[in-house]
Amino acid sequence: MPYDTIITSWNNAVHSLNKGLMIITPDGIIDKMNDPLIAMAEQYGVSPEFKWQGTSFFDITSQQLGQSSFDHFFDVVDFPAIKDVIAGKLPEYSFEYAVSGNGQDIWVLCEVMPLLMSDDNLIHGAMLSFTDITKFKHKELLLEQALAHSYPLPGHIPICAVCKYVRHAEEWEPVESYLESRLPIEFTHDICPDCIRRLYPKYSSILDDPQIPD
Predict the structure, then answer these.
(1) DSSP-assigned beta bridge partners for residue 104
(2) Which residue, of 50, 88, 152, 164, has the greatest Cβ tally within 10 A?
(3) What is 3-141's CATH topology?
(4) pTM of the entire structure?
């Protein structure tokens, strides 16, 4: 395959990724960005006129980007850690930040890796990838909220052998409400086949019909 064709294919692959990529030189100058990253930045308020290439990554401010939606990025990013990756003092560095836009927060994972060249194995800057992790962050936040509203259950729970009420302190309550008040669960009620046969024998024959689903 001709070299020019390989380069073209590689460039097409880079610009077709579902994540943003940025290359910065050892002194922090932005050398290259792929199209998804430029589109991501413009989607959240950066002017299309902003000149990324040739700008010092370490000197960019939220004011330059023209949007307060990037304030969280500058609050959490550790520029010295990125410089340590370029210097070979850290193998990698990553952080998460939220971008506000259209009334919602979009969560992004930024991963910083040293840019190595196969011919000399020296660090020639850093590659930064930006991935939208919003759907995963929402699940994480929901799990944290659920755990925050959960109470640890004791190792032994006194339960009535007849009515199955649970004793808490001096009170007795249904096992459903006992668990619902302490765990992120909600019971729905059904009736099992054995109870149908015991309580409604007149209708239980339908349970033996192979054409009726469970």
Answers:
(1) 101
(2) 50
(3) Beta-Lactamase (3.30.450)
(4) 0.64
H helices within 44-159, ranges in order? 62-65, 71-76, 79-86, 134-148
The predicted-structure confidence for 169-179, as pLDDT tens digits, reads as follows 888 998 888 88
Residues of the chain with CATH 3.30.450.20: 3-141
In the sheet that holds 30-33, the strands lie side by side as 30-33, 20-24, 123-132, 104-116, 93-101
SS (H, E, C) 135-162: HHHHHHHHHHHHHHCCCCCCCCCCECCC
Question: Of 175, 161, 132, 152, whose CA–CA distance to 19 is shortest?
Answer: 132
Q: What is the mean pLDDT of each run of 10 residues along the chain (214 residues)?
A: 59 82 95 92 87 93 78 92 95 92 83 84 92 88 72 80 84 87 79 81 72 59
